[in-house]
Amino acid sequence: MTGTATTPTSPWYDPNAQVHLGVFYTGVGPQTIWSDPTAAEQMDISTFADLARLLERGLFDAFFLGEGLRVRENRGRVHALDVAGRPDAITVLSALAGATERIGLVATQNATYNQPADLARRLASLDLLSEGRAGWNVVTTDNAWTGENFRHGGWLEHDRRYDRAAQFVDAATELWASWAGAQTAAVQRDTDLVRFTSTATVPGSAQGRPVLFQAGDSAGGRDLAARHADVVFSANTDYAAALAYATDLRARLAGYGRSPDSVRILPGAMLVLGSTPAEARDKAEWVRREHMNPQRAIAFFEQYWGKDLSAYDPDGPLPDIDPVENELDPSRGTLAIDQRTGKLAQIDRWRAQAAEQGLSIRELALSIAGGHRTFVGTPSEIADTWTHFVRTRVVDGFNLVPYLVPTQLQEVVDTLIPELQERGAYRTGYTGTTLREHLDLPAVSRQAPIGRAAATV
Amino acid sequence: MHSPALFLALELDGPGAHPAAWTAASGPPDQPVRPGALRAAVRAAETAGYDLITLDDSALPPTGSPEVPARLEAGTRAAFVATTTERIGLAPTLAVTVTEPFHLATQLASLDHASRGRAAWVVAAPADAATLATIGADPLTPAEVQRELADVIAVARDLWDSWEDDAVIKDAATGRYLDPDKVHHVDFRGGRFGVKGPLITPRPPQGQVLVLGADDLGVTDQLDVALIAAADATGVGRRADAARRAGAPLVFAEVEVVLDTEAGPATARLAALDATTPWPGGRRLRHVGSAAALVDLLRTLAEHVDGVRLFPAVHDLDGAELAARVLPGLAAAGLHRPDRAGATLRERLGLPRSPSRFAADHRTDRDLAGAHR
User: Where does FMN bind (chain A) (predicted)?
Assistant: First the structure.
């Protein structure tokens, strides 16, 4: 837990800075605890609608859906232990646009396995239907395993995925800006990565175009963010890392002639609240152990061993059998490129660590499990910490990754938001109607008058 | 063979089916892209008693709205009204030649979840140079289009079945959220693409989203509802019989509608609209006249088809007249039942809900062999 220093050490110190909050509802993976009796039904439209309305009551900026275009697997079969199965983000957010008034609606959509004009049109439709509340989290995929679900297969090499993403986003923004009523001209691209001719059919919304989110922490991702993004969704929630990230990003923005304030930094974060510090710590430990329960600990190492380890005791020592020699595959979800090789050496290091510290399978898994950093504390402590983070401008807020839906978020809305408001670090009412306004981002250039007319219904 | 009462569908895209409908529309020129107007129109259709609405679409600008050539993507429009309606079926047009098959299947399954079992799909297969240029692809030959259409419907149906109904088990004792034996790769191999599967979305509430398509697309055996565009009742009857023989469970006739309204008699209104932009006839059955005469025409059609899809020339005028006079007239005559029971569109249309084709006790030779068309 970062301290709650109040000294304005940051060169960007702003005593009036506000905490912006979104919820990043991944919908799959181990983050969401499904076994708790209060856990909401994953696919029920009411779960999504109730959640969006709850966040609207908490004056959140955005409700943000994840995406993955292949169901995760463990040794060739669908991975059984985590929540899996989710709806298309734009479809469910369009449904939510009809059921909410203010909350931003952000869809993660892939720039590798979509067509630019097709996706740009769907996003623009969501933006107009929600009267200027849409966002697009731009992601890429570089593995052929996911590509097996698509016409083009694994056609894009790692190094070129950001090239295509940059061209894709550039084309989409030009399509969005091109609407001029009956005078709309076709937009054309003809490179080896992006090729189309399309005339826009969707007028600009009240916010001009969808807000662009970008998550990449790699150099390519950061550069794409600095060129195009309105919001970055980094993983840096440790104060020092957040400061370094903000410094790097603002330098890159300057390199593209953009103002340092033209991008909001909203890292993904886990949060565990308790009414006392001790209760919060206990709850955080419960969450940690739910996330890495005995079955998941075994499955985690099965991914590395490439073998069935179900006969091993999670509370016993690491398997004594040798792993298969194949390197890791991406079927359990995103793997950073540097994690894909050197598997056997990694296993040797783990064996050494387990022997030295006397760790069981589960204890070792708990000690090496990654994921989003967790803020743990009372609402008052967290409000102090977050206020410090935003006033020193190392972040502009957070995208919360919930561990329990909806009860955890009810707790955030009911206990943490009032503490932030008391510190003058959180809005007490929506002042705008669009996602761009909620995020306090500079306006994009307005389009033809008919577009504005369409958005004033 | 079929119930005497007709199922009623309403095509709701744009200001109306007539290319000059915009000249007679009462709202502002951007009315078709106003979210509030869309919500009101679909709610009105539900209140009037229609069984489903269809939403036409294209990747190209609409030609019938010269002042505001705008149109929102149909799948998002259908989803938008999913939470503001209760029982009406929602059938967007999605093009198999434009959207990735995997995305298309995901979007429709998600619409079915969002609407609690009211999703349907009007299949379209535009293959002209301008449409395919929007995805940087080359035009397709008729044979390629036919194969593509068959492949995309087939893979969508496989993907909708890729999660069995009871795949999610939430078994705390074993830590298993789902039963991996009940979520399947589909290993589809088509003429021009393959899809591994499973879908990222669990099985739709209806099991299979309803598939509607024209009877002349060459995929009638893969449809739930064949749509017949024929110029007269005799032609409708002949084609309906052929569609049933080809395997379509339900057959709907397409009917263009110009009615006598307070704005003037139907013939005069049509002439005025045609003076702006002619509306070529001869493709679909067209009724020009009174509401009572339309009820009579539909009574005749009910001997041949299970339902009709109505195309009002001008929504604000003919659509209103349909709701005010024709639908009540049909209900009074026993030709329409707005109160059909059923939680889902499939149930209300009397179509069965099958278990997944991949379920252990439901496998066919094709599935066991892992071989696909």
Answer: 108, 158, 162, 218
**Full-model pTM:** 0.94
Tokens of B220: 């009638």
State the average pLDDT over residues A415-425: 98
Scan for tokens 């919001």, then name that residue.
Answer: A231
Average pLDDT, chain B: 94
Asked if the Cβ–Cβ distance from B68 to A131 is below 8 Å, we say no
Q: Where are the domains of chain B?
A: 7-165+187-352
Q: Give CB contacts under 8 A, 24+ apart, made by B273-280.
A: B273/B18, B273/B20, B273/B21, B273/B23, B273/B24, B273/B313, B273/B314, B274/B20, B276/B20, B276/B23, B277/B18, B277/B19, B277/B20, B277/B64, B278/B19, B279/B17, B279/B18, B279/B19, B279/B20, B279/B313
Rounding to the nearest 10 degrees, give the CA dihedral for residues B220, B222, B223, B227: -20
The set of residues, in sequence order, having a beta carbon less than 8 Å from that of A389 and lying 6+ positions away, is A2, A239, A242, A395
Cβ atoms of A80 and A74 closer than 8 Å: yes
Domain ranges of chain A: 20-275+373-454, 293-368
Interface contact B114-A87, CB threshold 8 A: yes
The per-residue pLDDT for A448 is 38
Res. B209 pLDDT band, cuts 50 70 90: very high
Would you tell me which CATH number, out of the four given (3.40.50.970, 3.20.20.30, 2.30.40.10, 3.40.50.2000), belongs to the domain A20-275+373-454?
3.20.20.30
CA distance B13 to chain A (A): 14
CA separation for the pair B335, B93 (Å, rounded): 27
Pairing of the two strands B89-95 and B210-214 = unpaired
Name the fold adopted by B7-165+187-352.
Answer: TIM Barrel (3.20.20)
A120 and chain B in contact, CB less than 8 A? no
Tell whether the model's pLDDT for residue A440 goes beyond 70: yes
- A112 backbone φψ class: left, alpha, beta (φ>0; ψ -120 to 50): alpha
Of the candidates A426, A417, A429, the one whose C-alpha atom is nearest the C-alpha of residue A391 is A426
ipTM at complex level: 0.96
Query: In B, residues 130-159, which contact A (CB 8 Å cutoff)?
Result: 130, 133-136
DSSP state, B196? -
Question: Least CB-CB distance to A45: which of B80, B114, B178?
Answer: B114
Q: What is the DSSP string of B255-311?
A: EEEEE-BTTB-HHHHHHHHHHHS----SSSEEEEE-HHHHHHHHHHHTTT-SEEEEE
Instruction: Give A114's contacts in chain B (Cβ within 8 Å).
Output: 100, 103
DSSP A166-186: HHHHHHHHHHHHT-BTBTPPP
Pairing of strands A374-377, A397-400: unpaired
Q: Give the model's confidence band at A338: pLDDT under 50 very low, under 70 low, under 90 confident, else very high.
A: low
Q: Are A213 and A109 in contact (CB under 8 A)?
A: no
A142: which 2 tokens? 């570089």
Please, which pLDDT band fits residue A57 given cuts at 50, 70 and 90?
very high
Task: Report whether B23 belongs to an annotated binding site.
Answer: no
